Amino acid sequence: MTATPAPTGTLDARYSRPDARPSRWGEVSEVLDTAETYWLSTVRSDGRPHVTPLIGIWDGTSLYFSTGDREQKAHNLATNPNVSLTTGNNALQGGLDVVAEGTAVRIGDPGRLASLAAAWVGKYGEVWRFEVRDGDFWHEGGGLAGVYEVTPTRVFAFRKGDDRFAQTGWRLG
Q: Segment Disordered: which positions (predicted)?
């Protein structure tokens, strides 16, 4: 099997220091993989933005998150599945912030859900153990939750620091 080459990012000189270098995809993937919290941006039916923190999984290709059907983000996704997921840190003088844009697609396949449920426990511990029931996650503390996959079509990385400010972008898929 041939490994898929890492995508190549393009440095945006408008928002980067003159001597900046583009971020490497491996760094971006690591930030997405190790993040404990992501910020999901959706759009309400009246056009207003909605942003909420959540936990999720990055598998190297796609981001996954869950939400109950009664939550605002689930209502938003039903009318407009376009989302941004953001992670990084809130420090100005260091770190790498990442924004992934794409379309959220609800997953119902029991096998995939079981694999994702195991990934949630592996990343977040037993408190986030989900059962798979009727095409959703189920958790005693929260009931049923739909699981969504976002395969990014665009990704942006914002490197910060005294001499490292750089914005790199990727067009995927």
A: 1-22
